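Re: that chain you flagged

S.,

Sorry for the slow reply, it's been a week of failed gels. I finally had a moment to sit down with the sequence you sent. For the record, here it is as I used it:
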Amino acid sequence: MSILQEKVKGVEERIKIKEYLKENLGLSTRLIRSASKDQRISVNDAVVRMNYMIKNDDIIKIDLEKNEGQDITPEKMDLDIVYEDDDILVINKKPFMIVHPTKNYQSGTLANGVLNYFQETDQKCIVRLVSRLDMNTSGLIIIAKNQFSHGMLSKNMKEKVQKRYLAIVHGNLKDKEGTIDLPIYRPEGIEYGTMRIVDERGQKSITHYKVIESFNGGDLVECLLETGRTHQIRVHLSHLGHPIYGDILYGYGEDEDDLIKRQALHAYGLDFNSPRTGELLSLRADLPDDMNELLKKIR
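Prediction finished late last night. Pasting the structure tokens below so you have them in one place:
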């Protein structure tokens, strides 16, 4: 059972528990309302209403476990779990895998496997995705186990979660380290499909990059996202004249099937604070086999 517990300190004036939970613990109105309705909020081991006036040394407990359903079919799957605690699950997603079921992909997605894992380990959780990756991008994905952690991490995703990627690009970058600050825009027209371009009409997009190693056929580049636009790294590197190997949309794609069968992009690092303890979590995932093989081929 996942219990969020707080001992009240430093309260100098009368305040309702509802306000205290919002202002001091950062809980959402939706979570508070839901937990109160299910009688999952107690003070000193007694269930209370949300107009209860808290006082110093009160022990507030919130039961985060909730009976919920999800229209996803559980599927047995080999998951590469990098980190897990009462609030979050971090998985190193394999390439060629859809993250969540869609109209055309009802099975074989990461969410199918995660839901099965929750059921096998007797965890009453649904799949709450905090981050996502393209089907052909491998790497770390955060899944929240409860409404509390999902709300806290989603709120901090833009500013307090550092997302690090490794990309293998064509050619050698002139500047071995720098920042790409170019707006990304989605052009209209069916001929563009999901494609994005660098255009002054677009949203502000910032990618910090550093060349980790150079080879005869390209560079291994680390990218740190300051913003999180769709296809941001792929668009920015292609705009510089150094598209990612295997990228059909922004590079040479299918002409490189003998080298790698997807874009050589891997979300290898996440740095963020635990939503419960505030502890810094610095998680890493090794470069996948197909990208290591590509590096051997372009040396």
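What I noticed first: DSSP finds six helices and 16 strands in the chain.

Talk soon,
D.
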